[in-house]
Fold each of these.
Amino acid sequence: MNSEFPHDDIIHLNHAAVGPWPRRTVEAVEAFARENLHRGSRGYGRWLETIAATRELARQLIGAPAAEDVAFVKNTSEALSMVAFGLPWKAGQNIVIPAGEFPSNRVVWHAAAERFNLEVREVTVGEEPELDLLRACDGDTALLSTSAVRYDTGLRLDVQFLGNELHKRGVLFCVDAIQHLGALPFDAPGCQADFVMADAHKWMLAPEGIGLFYVDPQARDRLTLNEYGWHMLEHAGDFDNPSLAPSPTARRFEPGSPNMLGIHALHGSLSLLLETGMDRVDEEIREHWLHLEDRLRSLGCEILSPRQRRAGILTFRPSPDLLDGISLEEVYKRLQEAGVLCAMRGGGIRFSPHFYHATADLDRAVEHLSEILPGA
Ligand SMILES: Cc1ncc(COP(=O)(O)O)c(C=O)c1O
């Protein structure tokens, strides 16, 4: 058993929903709580150091040039909203998104379209998703927004190719990286991303309510601010300073007091991922994916996730023979009861393993599935 994840009676295959915390994150939260109990905020100076250290870890995960390019936000949706309601839109412009995105990456653009008189183009993508998206862009396209990895099928886009093509066309690129960061290496400047956002509670193994928002320094000034407070000012903390100038860094997107507890937790989780190394994390997840694919196919399940474009998500559907009259919902429910944490998405059952699993965990999950399926 992995000492960072001493799970009782569960096989956690649900990192694409809400991931578990590693031991060190739990210990960081406990220590922070105890410190508050006994010493109040006496150590605030050190807490600020933890913020700086966490921002540096976030920089490494995103591949940002500087820690100052990364803001802490509440969640992916908040950062998407900052982009949608911050850009200097011109009436008649359009925004391109893939059809069937997670609602967070749809609702903001439709809301902005209504407010600023824009068009949202939802593009059905096929075998070549990047080309399908690029074909939908024209001279009036201001921005393309996509998830780097689809929440339902786990389709991984070639964000490097897409970003470079968009850059040539002068179209801004916004990447919802919540299903990517923490599972795969990322290189924000390499994919010419203007905006990247991700909540930390999935593959980053941290609590809900703390997320990362990267803004390319060139794009930063283009975003009008809609949230204000003392903390986002250039001279934050110098309360007698009359200047109300926003910070030149991404801190301008952090209006008030930070989520100090969440940041302490995130520090623990990111330190584990980065000590492990994102290349190794990626490799382990890919091996788990292939192993599960093999076992599930042998059982007679149809794999709905694209093998050549896999990330951490493997969505599958048992054949009608295997189901033998029981519903997919029933299979899902019984998997939960057996302690196999997973989700129902994209017309199938979604497994999303992380790097720390042992192959035996995956085998046990498939054995549970096989016991549940009447036709197996
Ligand atoms: C692609 C994608 N975007 C966004 C979210 C959630 O956004 P938020 O961090 O605002 O809760 C999810 C959650 O499942 C998701 O899969």
Amino acid sequence: MSGVTFDQVTKRFGDVVAVDSMSLEIRDQEFMVLLGPSGCGKSTALRMIAGLETVSEGELRIGDTTVNDVEAKDRDIAMVFQSYALYPHMTVRDNVEVPLKTRSYDVDGDRRKLRKPERADRVAEAARILGLSDLLDRKPGALSGGQRQRVALARAIVRRPEVFLMDEPLSNLDAKLRAQTRVELVELHRQLRTTIIYVTHDQVEAMTMADRIAVMEAGRLQQVGAPRDVYARPANLFVARFIGSPPMNTVDGRVRVDGGRAHVEVGDGRLDVGPRTGVADGDAVVVGIRPEHLRIAEDGVTAHVRAIEWLGHERHVYCDVAGTPVIVRDTDPGEDHAAPGTDVRVQAAPDTVHLFDPSTTERID
Ligand SMILES: Nc1ncnc2c1ncn2[C@@H]1O[C@H](COP(=O)(O)OP(=O)(O)O)[C@@H](O)[C@H]1O
Ligand SMILES: [Mg+2]
């Protein structure tokens, strides 16, 4: 088993810099999610690990081995894609067995092709782990989408690779099956104890499955951390707005410091942000508040209510604050009489207010 290290890795396609000087250490046995919008370089980063793209600059290591010049077939990794590409004329058993027939494996210190009973053992074990034991004689056409996805996973895990790479493997599943498969992947990781590097643009997948998330934008790594930490302390405005659903509200404001406490003026009101270092009286800032941390109150900042969504377990109040759209999310609306077309006031506890530098977009602590 091994971790994977990007050491200032850059990938260029002509003039396009797909991955820009990325440094990231993925630990052995870690479930790492590369998260970012379409086109940010996630697949390219993954394909470099697989050996499907060359590295333009920098060093890429699997374990202690620099793999820049190691061919894909000589890397001990298995990759699962969005499209499963199963062979339609072959049974599930034969589909899962394919990689065992085409490659050599390390067996008790020997590198050789597996014998038939060894292959059968591995197929049976993978089928058991993925709940496919009763489906081994079926053909892909007789399986549901979720079952096909599990066959693709089984075909990867029979190889017992050092590292699993997964590129948006749940994108073709419907919402319910995606939620279910998320849980299964987490369980699979716990059983296999193998490094998994998983690419997605879906922040819910990242938040729910990852040990750590690496957020990317435009080829650049923005922040790396455990889901809770990235959620609680986004490093910049991009991460703040990308993680969380509905996303973090961000509004322009101006800092006022009197005594030991700081306020931020937003529109016609002010928000107490408690004692703060890193800001001075008169500074322009971007104020960030998660929808669940905003509440409708007696005082605070004026918000014009535009629409209210009831979701059964919570309410989303869509407002306008100083010309910027803002969402309040609450589970216990009470009797605040918020109604579309009226003005209310919104408030947040000082320690839930994030501040960002409008010129650098970086978090201010
Ligand atoms: N083979 C290629 N040739 C040229 N440009 C590419 C190639 N593969 C990816 N790119 C470009 O590199 C950038 C990153 O792409 P990709 O890694 O596929 O992003 P993501 O997986 O995050 O959606 C995009 O601008 C994309 O157009
Ligand atoms: Mg991609």
